[in-house]
UniProtKB/TrEMBL annotation:
Transmembrane segments: none annotated. This is FYVE-type domain-containing protein. Residues 323-382 form the FYVE-type domain. Residues 92-101 have a biased composition (Low complexity). InterPro entries: Rab4/Rab5_effector, Znf_FYVE, Znf_FYVE-rel, Znf_FYVE_PHD, Znf_RING/FYVE/PHD. SMART domains: FYVE (SM00064). The keyword Metal-binding applies. It comes from Bremia lactucae. Residues 70-124 are annotated as: Disordered.
């Protein structure tokens, strides 16, 4: 049976994802964002804004947007080839590409998962190697650009495609929403497009939003990565070919106000074969995705005006019209005449003349409709952020394998340095007592050892309210002296093992909680306080043991 498009509502059945699957998709998007931001920092390093000439070629420029195409040469560089040296090889051979492609096809299972493995490695997690790199400047803000790309429902996808004049769209659908907030959206989507070579569909992960990096810098992102979803298999109809794409956009505020710095790494494979990807049509489709970014800013303005019109109360509008029998414009105070008729603003209901009004397009259920807005509301739309007051989700920095190993080694070293002083004090105290008090009896030795272990972990013995040489009755301080030697020794061993385990757990938990602030001024101050407390405890411990032994004599 031949399918008819658009597909009926409910064609794709609703499904639930396991927590591991949802986390895998989120991790994939986060890794791609980190990788693209790293390439952007390499590209603009020291203000060069230059790509490696042996790998990339300037293909097209439009206004202040520039696209670079990967050359079909055997020389390339690591990742996107942004800062490599001529002659470094980064392109895999055809045998390696075909073997890896067969491995990915054989490894497919019934569950939903990304195209790449989720293991933490230095290799790229993008499904396709970038064939086009775009960089440029746009007039606007990061929030408006992200808001224009924000599509959380199927109706919104179709409405924005119609507004942008995308005649290639046949059908689309939001399969599953992974995460949605005011300033970010992550979901699984499906799209069917009409191309010169035939109909092409794609199932992909769409992540768009505004976030903050580890340094507190605000940036926007948009990830489009092909994934496999169990409820969206490839159609049996041979006229529809499943394609693969991999795009990542990074938006950052420019040095000039109301200016956005945009960066893109993208690749589009319309042949469904990784070996023949990168044709002329794929290059044009990839560059078209980049040069259509200004349409997102126009769409953001229309969405904000639509929201303002929707929130305007019908009662307030009717009241304003009835009481708006004024003969003056609320902006320029001009009187109405035959050549200048007055009307009401559709967003604020103010009375305006023909010179102070602007016709703007909004989205309605019937399609695109034009409404009358005053100039004040238009200025407010441009200045107001759609995500004002929203909490941003900060992304932790991604560590490489080398950095992770160094972090583990530093943690082990810090843990050893913290536990070593206390163990050295204990060993020194035991050796001192064994050398100076060798003539003492076996119960006295056991009692001194027991006093050492108890005083090492008892906070009440470290109080400085009384003099340091004040003695406590021996039967109150050490009730274990009243027991036999064998029972006392067994009790000591059990108590020592228990307290050592507690101490190790305490140090490990403290290190885990303080490992992120160790390099800050507050973290160094806390470490200094901990070392001072350990020194005070060792000092009091030595005095107490000495007082006890001399009193015994």
């Amino acid at each position: 049976m031949q399918l008819r498009f658009p597909l009926p509502a409910g064609y794709f059945a609703k499904f639930e994802l396991l927590s591991e699957e949802a986390q895998s998709f989120q991790s994939l998007a986060t890794d791609i964002i980190h990788e693209t931001r790293r390439d952007l920092d390499r590209y603009i390093h020291e203000g060069r804004n230059l790509l490696e000439g042996h790998t990339w070629k300037l293909t097209k420029s439009k206004d202040r947007l520039h696209c670079y195409r990967r050359r079909s040469t055997p020389t390339s560089v690591h990742q996107a080839g942004l800062c490599g040296k001529p002659g470094t090889t980064g392109v895999r051979s055809s045998n390696e590409s075909s073997s890896s492609g067969r491995a990915r096809r054989d490894d497919r299972s019934s569950i939903s998962r990304p195209m790449r493995s989720s293991e933490l490695t230095d290799s790229s997690r993008k499904g396709l190697e970038p064939i086009v790199v775009g960089y440029g400047m746009l007039d606007g803000t990061v929030d408006d650009l992200v808001y224009g790309l924000y599509q959380s429902s199927t109706d919104e996808m179709k409405t924005l495609a119609s507004f942008h004049g995308d005649e290639s769209l046949i059908d689309c659908s939001v399969l599953k929403t992974l995460r949605q907030t005011r300033c970010s959206h992550s979901g699984l989507k499906w799209r069917l497009s009409r191309t010169v070579g035939g109909n092409r569909d794609c199932c992909y992960l769409d992540c768009v939003g505004v976030s903050e990096d580890a340094n507190g810098q605000r940036f926007g992102y948009h990830v489009l990565e092909s994934v496999e979803v169990r409820n969206c298999p490839q159609f049996v109809d041979k006229s529809i070919v499943r394609t693969t794409m991999s795009f990542c956009f990074i938006f950052r505020p420019g040095k000039v106000p109301n200016q956005v710095e945009v960066f893109m790494e993208g690749s589009f494979d319309s042949s469904a074969d990784s070996l023949s990807a990168g044709g002329v049509g794929d290059y044009h489709s990839t560059m078209e995705m980049f040069f259509n970014l200004p349409l997102a800013l126009a769409g953001a303005e229309v969405k904000k005006i639509t929201a303002m019109v929707a929130t305007q109360s019908e009662v307030l509008r009717s009241t304003s019209r009835k009481s708006g029998r004024e003969s003056h414009c609320s902006i320029c105070r001009a009187k109405s005449s035959l050549l200048s008729l007055r009307t009401n603003c559709e967003t604020c209901s103010a009375v305006i003349c023909s010179k102070c009004r602007i016709r703007k397009v909004i989205f309605t259920r019937k399609g695109k409709t034009k409404v009358t807005c005053c100039k004040i509301c238009i200025v407010k739309v441009k200045d107001q952020s759609p995500f004002e007051g929203a909490e941003l989700r900060s992304q932790p920095p991604k560590l490489t394998i080398k950095e992770l190993q160094e972090d583990r080694n530093s943690r082990d070293t810090d843990l050893t340095s913290c536990t070593a002083p206390s163990m050295e004090i204990m060993n020194a105290s035991v050796s001192m007592f064994s050398l100076t008090d060798s003539e003492l009896s076996s119960p006295s030795w056991n009692s001194s050892s027991m006093s050492l272990q108890q005083s090492d972990f008892d906070e009440n013995l470290y109080s400085t309210s009384g003099p340091c040489n004040a003695l406590v009755p021996l039967d109150r301080r050490m009730p274990a002296l009243l027991e036999s030697a064998s029972q006392q020794r067994q009790y000591e061993l059990q108590h020592q093992e228990f307290m050592l385990r507690q101490q190790m757990q305490k140090h490990s938990s403290a290190k885990r909680s303080c490992q992120y602030e160790a390099n800050s001024r507050e973290g160094l101050y806390n470490q200094m306080l901990e070392l001072q407390m350990q020194a005070d405890r060792a000092y009091h411990l030595t005095n107490q043991n000495a007082c006890m032994m001399y009193a015994r004599r």
